[in-house]
Fold:
Amino acid sequence: MPNIVYGEPYSEMDGDILKKDYGYDYPDGLDLRPGSKLHKKLVNEVLERARESHNVIQNRFSSWNLIDQVLTTYALTDEEEDDLVNEDSRKPVTIVFPYTYVIMETMLTYLVAAFFQDPVFRYEGVSPEDMVGSKLLEYVIQQHVYKTKVLLNVHTMLRDSLAYGFGLGAPGWRVNTGYKTIIDRTIFGTEKFQQEAVLFEGNDLSNIDPYMSLPDPNVPIHEIQKGEFFGYLDITNYMDLLSQEKDDEDLFNVKYLKHLVSKKSSIYNLDESAREDKVKGSRYVRKGWTSTTETDVIKMFIKIIPKDWKVGDSEYPEKWEVWLAADNVIIKAKPIGLNHNLFPVASAAPDFDGYSITPVSRMEVLYGLQHVLDWLFNTHITNVRKAINDMFVVDPYIVNIEDMKSPKPGKIIRTRRPVWGKGVKDAVQQLGVVDITRANIQDSAFIMEYMEKIGSTGDNMMGALRKGGPERLTGKEFEGTQRGAFSRMERVARIIGIQAMRDIGYFFASHTQQLMEEDTYVKTVGLWPEVLRGVYGDISRIKTSPADLVVDYDVMVRDGSVPGGNFSRIWMEMFQVLAEHPELQQKFDTVRIFKHIAVNSGAKDVDQFVRAIPMQNEQVMENVDKGNLVPFTGGVA
Structure:
């Protein structure tokens, strides 16, 4: 049975949704009960924007499907190949030569090395009194990154950006509630009982599938904040939404969903991707499983004028968050209400052109060469398969044809009765086979070389030395080619850092300052251990309250380099000259120069080797007087 479409008569079963009243208290006294005039307006407004966006995005699906097939390294077989496999599973069929996959893995490896460094997000105080607070903020957010496994979502975002042209991440705030065991000690003994409590609160990151994204088609993908809306489809289930409604006061109307026969969106009837075609995955699962109550929710951030939408009195735009479940029921509608006043979405589009809503990805640029590579490889395999299949010209009057057809080794071929005793000469003759595809393998190497050049992933990036030539590879040649390859990859990483990582870092800091309610403990490690020990004493953990983190900060964007990527012997030679001349030592900071060389040589955390020199009380007071250190109200462990 189809979903309800407002403006058309309800079916008898779906009509129950209008007869029920679950007694919800809607925000600001708004009438958001299903069937109300305001509810219908919100449903139509969300669906209109979702359909307009999807009509634009879906034009790219066919191209993305080709990339999905390339990256899953298989090709669909035709009926002839299916029959071949059924006869003898050892015989090869058409495949995708996985070189695009290799190039993407190489690029991902570099990006992971560039961004997966501790701390992932770095902050610096704007004024002297903000310096310590910004470092505590950095430590708190780093704990969130570990506990919510943010780096896994960052990896998915990076992969999407290379495969589809853009990757999306949605920063959020997670609050996990549960039970803690409490020990009550009295003069009569100890008693153990459970108490409901907040087990964790902190930042997390969710991925948005490009196939299910709903951006404003009037703005480029790297300028999401300039659009009038941004949405995406979230595939969840009824039970999960009902559990969220219990703990989240912003959700409502979820109980009405059980009266809908179908809880899927009309915009996405099937999984549009081709990631799981080979294993008949989610594209086919969504056709009719009944063991799970799958529910599609369109989550949309919209700039609205409250007075025009009848949800307020303001005549100026506000950013609202609206959730539409199953195309029929509004389950959330409220101002975003975040301090940063932005759509909480970050996009990474390293190959953007500055104008397109769906830029061409690096993998799409390689698809033409990949297609030629597959053809060269598969035609050669086909020719070889033809050669080893033993093509014969047979006189059927002399030889039993059925015995000839048997693929088993050591077979016995019988002659027919009329020629018994007359010999078998000239009964069977093998056809000569000429391998006209012998040069295909050499041509394939030529194609792969240019794929590497286009993808910025030469042999040195893949961990292989230069091939060919009688002369040996010199150290200077290796360093020069490595620097050239790293420079191209640094551009990609730096663009992603400016576009996505900076935004995510800003969202995380803003959410922490606004939404954090519980005290937490942070380790005194990293770049500022001595300063923190000078304020709090020689301790391993510092108790941090939400008030300690309310400071002005700047998000520090990484430069796209990786540890060891900028190694240069010139720095080593200059350091040796510096160490031998006292006059230069008076002008230059030798310790900082040594750290710079160590980091560029591959050291991940040089500060862990620095001797801890506790600050004397006089030094602490002197720095407090100068404004470099500010005492905090938070306690210590």
